[in-house]
What does this fold into?
Amino acid sequence: MSGGGGLRSLISAAVTTGVAEAKGRIFGHILNPTGQRSPHKLLRQKLFGEKVAQWYPYDIKKDDPLVMARQEQDRLSKLEMLKRRGKGPPKKGQGRRAVKRSK
Amino acid sequence: MSEKRNIRDHKRRLLAAKYELRRKLYKALCKDPDLPSDMRDKHRYKLSKLPRNSSFARVRNRCISTGRPRSVYEFFRISRIVFRGLASRGPLMGIKKSSW
It folds into this structure.
């Protein structure tokens, strides 16, 4: 039965190689059974630079005037609130260190 | 003016996109075992002479509103802190705070 087993293994090996070849032909794969170094793996990847370059949705060099105006408005209103509570920045010469030095 | 680092990163991104094809070709050609070795050396040299900022390894995903480099969600492109504020105020569609 050893001869039959050898034959069977031979046939099965032939079938698997044939199937691999057919699969490669159909799906556009490149057969590399010996595992040689090849550039194909690198070349089949898609280019993604376009997507990477579009990370920032706005023009990065220029500021949106509306957004800047709103930020400035926020800053001013916050300062106004602090001043009303007496927590605003001291005037020149009225700060902690200046008072200490004048004593 | 927006975040300085973001501007730098943007420059890198543009460069990377510009040189992407060239970089890939050089890399592929210097890996190809069918080429003679002096050709492969030449392509390796050329690959090394590309601008360094055109490498994708130098691109960093940054928060588009604050410029934070870490814990930036790729889908929204904003950092976790900005995301939390926006999500709790509600301009992000389909995001709801929950606890369990």
